[in-house]
Design brief:
This protein has 10 helices and 52 strands. By secondary structure, it is mainly beta. A hairpin with a 3-residue loop joins strand 36 and strand 37. The protein is globular and about 100 Å long.
């Protein structure tokens, strides 16, 4: 028995060896070169796969490849983006050279759209695509930043310059609202309202702009939709990728302020009794430092015939250019897709992050006594004072408002935010019959945030009298989403029909609470021991919930690969609208004509692609807080006898008819490809009429007894119209060198068509800091653009004697005072002489990118900018008011011996809105300059790697502008406030923009 087993083992071993030898004998090495059929140029990175197996290779920089095949019947599949896939039977060949044919207009390139995907050539709406390599072209905290200048009609604005962890606001085709949000809707892997993943985890970004593209999102599509698709695993061996970069950052610009001696002379011209201090402090030098950013990402991806996976982890850390500011985040992303059977596919997507933000006070809404932000204080604080006085206490300002010095505020005030975000999304897709599939997704996201603040008693004017002030607030947000839809595709003769029908439900719940205290025995406890304070502050809490349920459908019909029809409809019901208007219907339709596929143009040697598009539809905007249509009660304190008691009064009246804002959009587009798409041009012209604007209505009579008579009502209309142009060219392309250019240009003009009603055609909001005591800073008026600056037209300096024609001064003016236009002609300046003095709306914006490649080297140069868009600087207005330090412009001030100047004499003046502080915001910025090198393939193979890349890049290295402030991309009160959509172009206390030098390494195994 034992010998029998030994004999069987021996025979098995011999058979195995013979089989392996036979197999080895059948192995065959195929080599060759892949080129482009149009110009014979080598194509690097072409995928070469043995059909039906996981055996594959890729061409090197010179287009060469080598691959093992098992037998002569093997089929090699050659695939490359932008080219038609080619299959070749091996046969007796050992050298197979292939010339790939360019795929006209990248017809096979798939673009993600709402609830599905379409070939790029079959899209009838206005859609811009941003690819993975563009999103990761330079290091950013938030992927939204990478969209700036990459897509026509897309405006990207940081809420606070280069502040670590600051939110980003993205608008598409202008502001379409006043009180509701104009931010674009973000959808990540099908989850509506999700948080952006890390840039390196993103496969593609699609920006849906017109109604045909966005109407599938109905009530939330008015502001455009950004679809983010994350990376997924692919069949084959596991790939490991590691990306790391380190950046050194500095402030991009600073103000030229008076030094101690200049400040003393300037102040004595206003107050001769002023005594100069002993220091000479540059407060900007003290609060600004060299910042740095570290970013590491590790990802694993791969798959088999049935399961694909992609998993990544990321660590990001930034130390800001303002001392004690910073942001740290850990995050992960996981995508798993499983083909359970021929009919059933399941998938799971998960994202999570934990971040910690160390904030400093910036963009203060008021900067009066005992308050203010680090940036604006650094500008206006007396330079002849040091950090500490002779008693070792923090100094506070010697002129104007009593405020603590900026170094003390930056280093001693605590503002920490801890945030956890988690999102999970599960889907199942089942093919019911051929052509008919059902997909169901269920997602959950949560956001937990804790913010603690502490002002120690050592900040004498801020919290000295109170003995220190502390507060802590908590926010918990949960979001449930369920999507269920059927998709049916059917070939009908020369045509193709695709039907989509679905149901969606989403519920959002937010709970917040806060508490505080003052009067601490010691400053060492920060905000962690409120119970040790002597005086508790009143706590606060609230709950917000809203639900949206929807039914939607879409019809796509393509006939003969020439004529395209799209019809979309969605019915939404939202709980945050009034009982009479819970539901609304949003339809759209679009037509497309592939002219280049017609017989008269099909074989044209110049025009390789020509498509005409037209669309019209209605989309909505429900972005207001819940309960805004309901009547409210408001708590107050009342006195009964000698006792203070809580009481409630009527807050605001109800509006049972409040409904969605609706945008009626028309779009005409043309897509043109020339010379086998070596040049590709897209042009879109659009018109958007937004009606039923949600605006605060204050027409409730006071005698009704409401504490706040303002209530939201649908009483306005806005029009946006514009042009978008995108041009991509492949200028040079040969074996060793290539040069490509991408340009986008967009122009948007908005106009207030209707406001309130026939009796009131204008509205004067205010964006000024509270201590400016300015009630009105800009105007909304029928027939005008949104948010134009409103004030006095500055005409120079009054020289004394007779006034120049058409000018006047405020009463009591003397030589050296300000001179303004006398609008009403009564010889004196008053509020009736105010007029429009500036327009913050940009005339047009652009992005200009060039990419050069020479062998293993590459160079990218990316410019971005805007023309027009006035800026009103509250900062420069304050520095010219005589109650603080000033810029060096004060050295040009009017004196009896220096009359040839437009700078008024030194004096303490009101901070009036006037055109002296309106500046042109035009700028051109070198957004990114990157030089990269890829190790040759023969070296990476020896290292056991697939790719090794090094790059050195610079961000914001050059800015060309006439704006005298620190940066033309300003955003004071441009987010979070009631009038955020119209608070444009204001500058005050912004965190500075930053210049960066970044070194990056990319490794792939």
């Amino acid at each position: 028995m034992k010998k029998t087993k030994q004999l069987k083992g021996t025979l098995f071993l011999v058979f195995s060896i013979c089989f392996m030898l036979g197999s080895t004998a059948q192995q065959k090495i195929i080599t060759g070169k892949v080129t482009s059929s149009s110009d014979g140029m080598a194509l690097p990175g072409v995928n070469v796969v043995v059909k039906g197996t996981t055996t594959g290779a890729a061409t090197d920089f010179d287009g060469n490849y080598s691959i093992n095949v098992s037998n002569e019947n093997a089929i090699l599949v050659f695939s490359y983006i932008g080219y038609v896939t080619n299959e070749v039977i091996v046969g007796s060949q050992s050298v197979i050279n292939v010339a790939l044919v360019e795929d006209a207009a990248s017809l096979d390139e798939v673009v993600v759209v709402g609830y599905g995907a379409r070939k790029k050539s079959d899209i009838t709406g206005s859609v811009s695509s941003v690819k993975s390599e563009e999103v990761t072209a330079f290091p950013v905290l938030d992927a939204q930043q990478a969209l700036q200048g990459r897509a026509a009609g897309v405006a990207v604005q940081s809420n606070n310059g280069g502040e670590p962890g600051t939110p980003i606001n993205v608008t598409i085709r202008g502001n379409t609202s006043i009180n509701a949000s104009s931010a674009a809707l973000v959808v990540v892997d099908g989850f509506v309202g999700a948080t952006y993943p890390q840039p390196s985890d993103i496969q593609s970004v699609e920006v849906l702009k017109d109604a045909s593209a966005t109407a599938i999102y109905g009530s939330r599509g008015a502001n455009g939709v950004i679809l983010v698709t994350t990376k997924k695993g692919k069949k084959g061996k596991m790939t490991i990728e590691f990306n790391t970069n380190y950046a050194v950052q500095t402030t991009s610009n600073r103000l030229d302020l008076l030094n101690a001696n200049q400040f003393a002379d300037y102040t004595r011209a206003i107050n001769p009794s002023y005594t100069q201090g002993t220091a000479n402090t540059d407060w900007q030098d003290l609060i600004y430092t060299t910042g740095h950013t570290t970013n590491h990402q590790l990802s694993f991806s791969g798959g088999s015939d049935n399961v694909n996976f992609y998993v990544s982890g990321n660590y990001f850390d930034q130390k800001g250019v303002v001392i004690n500011s910073g942001f740290e985040r850990f995050s992960f992303l996981s995508n798993i897709d499983a083909q359970i059977s021929d009919k059933l596919k399941l998938g799971f997507n998960a994202f999570g992050s934990r971040s910690t933000k160390d904030g400093v006070s910036t963009q203060a809404s008021t900067g009066g006594r005992g308050s203010g932000d680090v940036i604006s204080i650094a500008y206006r604080f007396a330079p002849d004072l040091g950090i500490l006085d002779e008693n070792g206490n923090n100094t506070f300002n010697s002129v104007g408002d009593n405020i603590d010095n900026p170094f003390a505020v930056a280093t001693e005030r605590v503002d920490e935010t801890l945030e956890d975000i988690y999102r999970a999304n599960f889907y199942g897709e089942y093919e019911i019959i051929e052509g008919l599939t059902f997909k169901s997704t269920f997602g959950f996201s949560s956001r937990n945030q804790t913010r603690g603040q502490f002002i120690p008693s050592t900040l004498i004017t801020s919290a000295g009298d109170q003995g220190g002030i502390a507060g802590i607030s908590n926010l918990k947000n949960t979001n449930l989403l369920s999507e269920n839809y059927l998709t049916y595709t059917k070939a009908l003769g020369k045509g193709s029909l695709t039907l989509l029908a679905g149901y969606s439900y989403q519920k959002d719940r937010t709970v917040t609470n806060s508490s505080g205290a003052e009067g601490f025995v010691t400053n060492s406890v920060s905000y962690f021991a409120l119970n040790t304070a002597s005086t508790p502050l009143f706590p606060d809490s609230f709950l917000n919930e809203f639900e949206i349920q929807s039914q939607y459908g879409r019809v796509n019909y393509d006939y003969d690969d020439k004529y395209l029809i799209t019809f979309t409809a969605r019915r939404d019901g939202a709980s945050n609208f009034a009982k009479n208007n819970k539901y609304a219907f949003f339809p759209s339709g679009a037509l497309g004509w592939k002219v280049s596929n017609e017989n008269f143009l099909k074989d044209n040697e110049i025009i390789s692609n020509l498509k005409l598009r037209a669309s019209y539809g209605v989309t909505g905007n429900p972005s207001i807080a819940p309960y805004q249509s309901l009547a409210t009660l408001q708590s107050i304190y009342a006195v009964t006898g000698d006792q203070t008691v809580n009481a409630v009064v009527s807050g605001r009246p109800a509006n049972p008819n409040l409904k969605w804002e609706s945008s009626y959009q028309t779009n005409f587009g043309i897509d043109l490809g020339l010379w086998q798409n070596k040049a590709s041009l897209s042009v879109d012209v659009y018109n958007i009429d937004t009606k039923d604007l949600i605006v605060g209505n204050s027409n409730t009579p006071e005698y009704t007894g409401f504490l706040n008579p303002n209530f939201l009502d649908n009483i306005g209309e806005i029009n946006n119209k514009g042009v978008e142009i995108t041009l991509s060219t492949r200028n040079i392309r040969n074996d060793n060198f290539s040069w490509s250019t991408d340009i986008n240009w967009s122009k948007n003009k908005n106009t207030v068509e209707k406001l309130f009603g026939s009796d009131v055609d204008f509205f004067l909001p205010s964006a000024a800091p509270g201590h400016f005591l300015q009630d009105e800073t800009h105007i909304l008026r029928e027939g005008e653009a949104l948010g134009q600056f409103f004030g006095y037209e500055y005409r120079g300096v009054y020289q004394g004697g007779a006034l120049p024609e058409g000018t006047a001064t405020f009463s009591g003016a003397v030589a050296g005072d300000e001179l303004f236009t006398d609008v009403d002609g009564n010889g004196e300046i008053s509020s009736s002489d105010r007029k429009i003095i500036g327009d913050p709306n940009q005339d047009w914006t652009f992005g200009f990118n060039n990419t050069f490649k020479y062998k293993n080297f590459d160079l990218g140069i990316f410019f971005q900018g805007a023309v027009g868009g006035d800026i009103y600087s509250f900062t420069l207005s304050e520095l010219a008011s005589g109650g603080s330090n000033a810029t060096t412009e004060a050295l040009k001030a009017w004196t009896p011996s220096n009359t040839d100047t437009d700078v008024p004499s030194p004096n303490t003046r009101e901070k009036r809105m006037n055109s002296r502080f309106v500046f042109d915001g035009t700028y051109v910025r070198l957004k990114n300059l990157v030089f990269g090198y890829n190790l040759p393939e023969n070296i990476t193979e020896k290292l056991g790697m697939n790719k090794v890349r090094f790059s050195l890049s610079g961000q914001n290295l050059l800015t060309i502008t006439d704006y005298p402030g620190t940066d033309p991309e300003v955003s004071y009160k441009a987010s979070g406030s009631q009038n955020a959509n119209v608070n444009q172009g204001f500058d005050y206390g912004n965190y500075p923009n930053i210049e960066s030098i970044t070194f990056s390494i990319n490794l792939k195994f």
